Amino acid sequence: MQKQKEKRERAGLRRLLVLALSFLKIGLFTFGGGYAMIALIQKEFVAKKKWVGEEEFLDMVAIAESTPGPLAINSATYIGYKAGGVWGAAVSTLCVCIPAFLIIYLISLFFDAFLQLTLVNYAFKGIQVAVVFLILNAGWKMLKQMKKNAFNLILFCGVFGCLVGFSVFAVDFSTLFYILICGACGLAVYLTVLVAKRRKARSEPTMQGNAALSEKTKDVPEKTEQNGSVEEETDASRQGEPQKGERTPEKEGESK
Question: 19 and 136, same structural domain?
């Protein structure tokens, strides 16, 4: 028992170390905010380590986006808790924040001189292109994993059309409203399907009872017809048999 406990503790510490190194790397080499981190988080913990499934990852992104706080920090907290409990959540959240904090702190010390460097400006322009690619890559992977049914496709086309329309006409519409509206639509569809299933389950016993009753009523005439035919056969046989005391031709021949 003691050895098994020590093995579990070592495995837990090893997993915490893996979480710390992974999120330090993600936090250090990711530019563009939480959406750019999603691609790296998916590659690290879904594709490589397989600690989180594809559907669970999609649900995690939806929850992380709809809850207060940055998307990357919420995602790191979720994966850390999934892999290592409370300590895993704390380590993952801390390690994903440390690189950005240190980099911003160092830049703030030399901010004016830093922005005047031409090389830095061109480097950031190239990084912006890479960030757009990372976000599109993560979105494409999530779209491929999404279930292709009518409800999801209608919601996707509706949200995509709203995003394009609001971008063209420069309408400020928070992404939180998209999530809330889509969540309300999903809840409405779920409740509608649930009510329909319950009504169907309630109607099935009555339909079965009516069918059984109709079968019984069909059997009654058949039984009466069978009983009538049996009675007719017995009457006919009785008519063919000689009555008590009546002499048949065979018996008369024998007496002669």
Answer: yes
Token pair 């649930």 in the structure block, residue: 194
- Are residue 96 and residue 130 in the same domain, yes or no? yes
Residue 169: which domain range?
A: 147-224
Look up residue 23 and give its DSSP letter. H
Tell me which H or E stretch contains 210: helix 175-240
Between CA 174 and CA 23 the distance in angstroms is 28
Per-residue pLDDT of the chain (256 residues), as tens digits, is: 777 878 888 888 898 999 999 999 888 877 766 677 888 888 889 888 888 888 888 888 888 877 777 888 888 999 999 888 899 999 999 999 898 888 888 878 877 777 677 887 788 788 778 777 877 877 787 777 777 788 778 888 888 888 788 878 777 777 777 778 888 888 888 888 888 888 888 876 665 655 555 665 655 555 555 555 545 555 545 555 554 455 555 544 444 4
Counting the structural domains of the chain, the total is: 2
